[in-house]
Write a structure and sequence with these properties.
single chain, 1 helix, mainly beta, two-stranded antiparallel ribbon
């Protein structure tokens, strides 16, 4: 069944609903069936469920909503990552359908990017999140349940551009040690026949979410991957 959603759908980030450009979300169910000889019926079926959310906002929206940038601290102990966004989606649909949105909950951030590709445009930030949740099934189906913890690994990223205060203005804080850089450029013949050259810096990232909304005449971008791993430790 298809549900038509209107643009008055709201995304709530820590109680704030302003500055959201777009949202995508998916609740995915995976099954693992154990087959046996002599039967078309599965011997057993294990069910897992995950939620994936991605949003694009104007730069600085999440920073304002949280009151601080998101710190990327790798886990030492087997406890939950703190790289989360408290996010919920309330849909405005064209048919009275309920259940198409997502309840507000902390979801683990898996990637972040900032983009200001036009010198006269505004900066935007994109956030991708995931959560591993209880499948909510009972016997004869086998429920994997929610993980005991979701731990965070070391985050890596890169940035380029000429905004005023780099790399913070493209939304990231990078660790001093371990940085490397590369360069690229292009130009073509003709009139005006202009081109550009950029330096890209790669390294470990310790903080995200400080992207600058305005900086006239300048461009920049960044991209960060935040690894998360669910742990099932049993009881």
């Amino acid at each position: 069944m298809a549900v038509i959603l209107g643009s008055l759908t709201t995304v709530t980030i820590n109680g704030q609903t302003d500055g959201i450009q777009s949202a995508n979300w998916q609740i995915q169910v995976s099954t693992n069936r154990l087959w046996e000889l002599g039967s078309w019926d599965a011997y057993a079926t294990q069910v897992t469920k995950t939620e994936s959310v991605s949003i694009t906002t104007y730069a600085g929206v999440v920073l304002d909503a949280l009151g601080a940038a998101v710190t990327l601290t790798p886990n030492i102990d087997c406890d939950d990552s703190t790289a989360v966004l408290p996010i919920g989606i309330s849909v405005q649909d064209c048919g009275g359908f309920s259940g198409a949105g997502l309840a507000t909950a902390d979801r683990f951030i898996t990637s972040y990017s900032y983009s200001k590709g036009d010198p006269n445009a505004f900066g935007t930030e994109s956030w991708s999140m995931q959560d591993w949740i209880d499948a909510g099934v009972t016997l004869p189906l086998i429920n994997t349940g929610a993980p005991s913890a979701v731990i965070q690994g070391k985050s890596e990223g890169n940035y380029t551009g000429n905004l005023t205060n780099m790399p913070e203005d493209v939304g990231i804080t990078m660790e001093v040690e371990g940085q490397v850089s590369g360069s690229q450029g292009s130009v073509s013949a003709g009139f005006p026949g202009i081109g550009n050259a950029d330096t890209t810096v790669y390294g470990f990232v310790s903080e995200i979410g400080t992207g600058r909304l305005e900086d006239a005449g300048k461009v920049g971008q960044s991209s960060v991957s935040i690894p998360h791993q669910p742990l099932y430790l049993g009881t």
